[in-house]
Every structure is written in C-alpha cells, then in structure tokens.
Amino acid sequence: MNQDYPPEFQKYLQATFYIDSDHPAVIEFAQKCTEGLSSNKEKAVALYYAVRDTFRYDPYHVDLNPAKLKASVVLQQGFGYCVEKANILAASARSLGIPARLGFANVKNHLSTEKLIQILRSDIFVFHGYTELWLDGKWVKASPAFNLSLCQKFNVPAVDFNGTDDAVFQQYDGEGRQFMEYVKDHGSFDDLPRSQFIAELKAFYPHLFEGIVLGGLNYKWEL
Question: What is the DSSP annotation of 23-77?
Fold first, then answer.
C-alpha cells in the first residue's frame, strides 16, 4: 500500500501514538466513509466532510492527558476541538494509505464568543490544528474544525474542501466581517507534538493550568 511513495513519506503513512491509524475503530470509520470511492482525492474529501460534520466542535472540554488525545479515543467520544478533529482526519487518511500530517498555527478569532474570550482572556487561539494531505503530488491543507450546523448558527460560511485547494479557516463571516487570521505558523509534524503544544498553551493561558471559576464552573486544564 505504501510502495508508491518515497521512503521519506513512510512517517506520514505509519501509525503513531496519537495518530493511531491502525486502531480498528479508525479503520472502520475510514472504510465506511469512503465505501465505493476509488481515488485518494475522493476518499480524502469524503473523510473531510465526515470529520467536519459528524464530530461537534467543542473548545470547552480540553483534556491534555496523552491517552485522551489519541485519534481513536476522540473518534469514539463524538466531539472535539480543532487539534483532536485534525488528528481524526490524519489517522483516517493514513489508514487508507493516504499520506497525512498535522499542521499548527496561532490564529486570531475576531468573532469569538464572549464566554470563550473570558475563559482564555485572549482572542488568540494558539496551536490551532489542521491536517495536511498528500494528494495528486502536493500537500493540501484541510481544517475540519467547525461543523456545518455551528457555522450556520454563527452565520459563518463552512469551510469546504475539494482535495485540490487548501481549506483553512474562512477569512470573513457571512456579513463580510473579518473572522479569522493566521498570526503564527508552527509547521508540520508526523505526530502531535504534545510538549510543544502544552508549552504554547502555558505561555498564553497560564491561568487555565491553575484553575479559574467562571459562571459557577471551574475550568482547569489537567496534564
């Protein structure tokens, strides 16, 4: 299955600790979503929409425990934030023999909810995760974070993916207001760089590792 790719691509095809593409649940999910499709591009597009819309985007339940960040675990819980959803897409693609890796960037959210800004104390979202897929001889970026129903609720166009062009966060909302901008690129990785991820979270949101109370609820990121 991997023989058509040069040796340096093997790390983007193999299962890793977090991108556990060899897990039965991941394999079953990927095969079910791509049944009857033949090309890698068709399969990648089908996987993208399945991950984008089947799994509810949830930035309020962040669990940094290594075991909880595995693609197979997130797959079975049915929701996740951007890093987790990108991980599911990468693992699903690898299980079908499509080279995939994770990309990360800090983004500025101009239309974030007041609740989330209060929790983060910032409109900068660090280590936003997306997936890069090798299709037709090039890397293509795909960000499956925001599910369609959520986009409709906030009057934001959903990010569509055609397997040829990059599909990252939309720049403007439905009324032409600036929505997202990328402010720092962390690069691409063959597995989730958890230590770097946590270091960036601590640098921007140290209070969330100490615990805060908001609206009667306690927020604390556990390691």
Answer: SHHHHHHHHHHTTT--SHHHHHHHHHHHHHHHSEE-TT-----GGGGSHHHHHHH
Identify the domain containing residue 62 by its residue range. 7-219
Show the tokens assigned to 177.
């207001």
Q: For tokens 């290594």, what's the residue?
A: 66
Residues 135/98, Cβ–Cβ less than 8 Å: yes
3-state secondary structure of 9: helix
- Predicted TM-score (pTM) of the model is 0.92
Tally of domains within the chain: 1
Q: Can you tell me the distance from the alpha carbon of 194 to that of 182, in angstroms, rounded to the nearest whole number?
A: 21
Residue 47 lies in a domain: yes
Residue 169 sits in a domain of what CATH number?
3.10.620.30
Note the pLDDT tens digit of each residue in 32-72: 999 999 999 999 999 999 999 999 999 888 899 999 999 99
**Host H or E run for residue 194:** helix 194-204
